Amino acid sequence: MKIKILHLYPREMNLYADHGNVLTLKKRCEWRNIEAEVIHYEPGDKIPDDIDIIFGGGGQDSGQGKIENDLIKISPQLKQLINDGTPALVICGIYQLFGKYFETSEHKRIQGADILNITTVAGPERLIGNIVLNTPEFGEVVGYENHSGLTKLGPDTTAFGTVVKGYGNNGNDLTEGTVYKNCIGTYLHGPILPKNPRIADFLIAKALERKKQSKKLARLNDMVEQRAHSVAVSRPQ
Ligand code: GLN
């Protein structure tokens, strides 16, 4: 059994150790004797049809500008994969660009893939710090955020979680991230998966389910991960 993980734009979109999320997915597969292949996707590449998990990290406004055209080009294929139930995790910069658009503080509008029903406009100050959420699916989730973008959820769009500490989507309505089908969009860097391994296992389980390999995931000893989670939660904002 093999899982193919698509890592979108690792060159431009990889802030605050976001790459650690891919390592976590790979390791948690391998610890269960599931082979995991990571495909680094850069502008101009071809996306294989048999992708099982999609991941995209955060990036500077300039990096987002650089990938804009390519992302628009591949958006029909990404949309199809997401609508078909492919599990995905998109963080900050790619989270914003999985939405309709991101307007930078220089009033430059970067078009998104229009997969998530969200819009983002840069605010007057950066929202920076440790963040804790309450999520219906995974309970307490912890991470680190650093963004200028203020994200608004469109009508009938579900948040990923409710902010307990930190800013989240816009520092105003207490929403954080969004969930659409099996795609999670969030501002949480850190990286998010090592400290919140249930999210990693959700992505892996959904990938297996989609391959009709819905064997129950073997439990792993997550003592170190739980400790990392608790330490992160105890940090000041
Ligand atoms: N450049 C975007 C913003 O500042 C995304 C930042 C990020 O990915 N951390 O909102």
Keywords:
237 residues, alpha/beta, 6-stranded mixed beta sheet, binds glutamine
Integer average pLDDT: 97
Quaternary assembly:
single chain
Bound molecules: glutamine
Supply the number of helical segments: 6
Using only CA atoms, what is the Rg?
Answer: 17 Å
Give the uncertain stretches in residue-range form.
Answer: none
Explain how this protein is built.
There is one protein chain. Helix 2 links the parallel strand 3 (53-56) and strand 4. The strands form two sheets. The chain has a six-stranded mixed sheet, sandwiched between helices. The termini are far apart. Helix 1 (19-30) crosses helix 5 (197-210). The longest helix has 23 residues, at 61-83. Helix content is 30%, strand content 32%. It is built from six helices and twelve strands. The protein has one domain (2-234): Rossmann fold, CATH 3.40.50. With 237 residues, it is an alpha/beta fold. It binds glutamine (GLN). The site of glutamine has 12 residues, from helix 2, helix 3 and strand 8.
Short description:
The chain has 237 residues and is of the alpha/beta class. Helix content is 30%, strand content 32%.
Secondary structure elements and their pairing?
Elements: E1 2-8, H1 19-30, E2 35-41, E3 53-56, H2 61-83, E4 88-91, H3 92-98, E5 101-103, E6 109-111, E7 118-135, E8 139-153, E9 161-165, E10 175-176, E11 178-180, E12 183-186, H4 192-195, H5 197-210, H6 223-234
Parallel strand pairs: 1-2, 1-3, 3-4, 4-12, 5-7
Antiparallel strand pairs: 5-6, 7-8, 7-9, 9-10, 11-12
Helix pairs in contact: 1-5
Bound molecules: glutamine.
Glutamine is lined by residues 15, 58-61, 64, 92-93, 146-149.
